[in-house]
Amino acid sequence: MNWIAEKLASLSTEFRDKAVEQQSQLTKPPGSLGRLEQIAIQMAAMQATTQPHLHNIYISVFAGDHGVADEGVSAFPQAVTAEMVKNFARGGAAINVLAKSIGATLEVVNLGTVAAVDTYENVLSRSIAPATANFVHGPAMTTEQLEQAMEEGAQAIMRAIANEADAFIGGEMGIANTTAASAMACALLKRPATMLAGPGTGLNKDGVRHKVQVIDKGLHNNKARLTSPLACLRCLGGFEIAALCGAYIKAAQVGLPIIVDGFISSTAALAAVKINPEVRDWMIFSHASAEPGHQIIVQALDAKPLLNLNMRLGEGSGAATAVPLIRLALATHNDMATFAEAGVSEKLK
Predict the structure, then answer these.
(1) Within the chain, which residues score under 70 in pLDDT?
(2) d(CA 205, CA 197)
(3) Does residue 49 fall inside a structural domain?
(4) Per DSSP, what are the bridge partners of residue 110?
(5) pLDDT digits (tens, 9 = 90+) for 96-116
(6) Looking at residue 212, what DSSP letter applies?
(7) I need a surface site. Which of 108, 177, 181, 295 has the fewest CB within 10 A?
(8) pLDDT score, position 14
(9) Residue 50 lies in a domain
(10) How many Å separate Cα 220 from the centre of its chain?
(11) Is 315 a catalytic site residue?
(12) 3-class SS at 332?
């Protein structure tokens, strides 16, 4: 896994300064477009251009099953992971509709499901194992499995670059992955499970209470192993979470802007930033998940999600929903007239 330590790309301070200057010349009171201005400035620095753009988005949805599903922590059966992979392949999921609407390239990467999945032309079969191990009893992944999963994330970024993508969105599907993500976040932030475990796919209060107990057992039984961010990922995470983490690190290395989705994706982002803090510079956080623990994670990442729509689907759906807003931010930055061009008087000194 030597590639994880490779140097990251740097944001352009030159083009950030140019974007700030451009915003000061547009026909509006300074700061009146609020966070739209900040998005445009951030994208200009990421892309090192005076005309930031978001024409070509690449979405990778990583799917994988979790051994901890055996503990009854989801409102849905484990078979749903494989069934949803089939649904992605047939174009019937929310992310299919959203990707088509924003003109994004969408790929699905199957990292391992308990139930068999037929071969589909638009699904990359990269099975590591039928599922992770149950982290209640020990590490979820071997070191080799962690390496494979993170490498799959890195390869997705290389496909995005080959596709001349302007930005990357990572999505996920895996029954019980909110349990894995909550456990990871507990370990990375040293917070109790009661603060980070939520209803996931729709658990009631008793279900959430049971989920907390399962996470607590996993944290206790892996305690001696949780010595680094990578160890937390290996012992408590999932194939799809590890792939997202690898994708985020590689995206920052090659200088590809990242639009981060909700709870699971933000947990992977947290792990990536814990591994290399400068990865954070390449992230735009799309929406505030309805999953309770998400607020704690974005606070730890010093992030302010763009939208708050009570979404908690995953798949990259919240990130895709934020794309039109980001495009509007870039359009106002690029296409508005300046005071000089419009013949409008500037603010009095």
Answers:
(1) none
(2) 11
(3) no
(4) 63, 125
(5) 999 999 999 999 999 999 999
(6) H
(7) 295
(8) 98
(9) no
(10) 27
(11) yes
(12) helix
- pLDDT at position 50 is 98
258-260 and 283-285 beta bridge pairing: parallel
Starting at the edge strand found earlier in the chain, the sheet holding 283-285 runs 123-125, 105-110, 57-63, 167-173, 258-260, 283-285
Domain annotation covers residue 285: yes
The CATH number of residue 294's host domain is 3.40.50.10210
Counting the structural domains of the chain, the total is 1
Tokens at residue 109, please?
């990467």
CB proximity list for 128: less than 8 A, separation 6 or greater: 64, 111, 112, 145, 148, 149, 152, 239
Amino acid at 63: A
Please give the angle made by the CA atoms of 267, 271 and 274, to the nearest 5 degrees: 135
Fill in the amino acid letter for 277. Answer: P
The pLDDT of residue 107 is: 98
Two tokens, residue 339: 């005071």
Catalytic option among 107, 172, 291, 315: 315
Alpha helices per DSSP H over 138-204: 143-162, 177-189, 193-196
pLDDT digits (tens, 9 = 90+) for 5-59: 999 999 999 999 999 999 999 999 999 999 999 999 999 999 999 999 999 999 9
Answer yes or no: is 11 within a domain.
Answer: no
DSSP 97: H
Burial class for 48, CB neighbours closer than 10 Å (0-12, 13-18, 19+): middle
Q: Are strands 283-285 and 123-125 parallel, antiparallel or unpaired?
A: unpaired
Domain that holds residue 164: 57-325
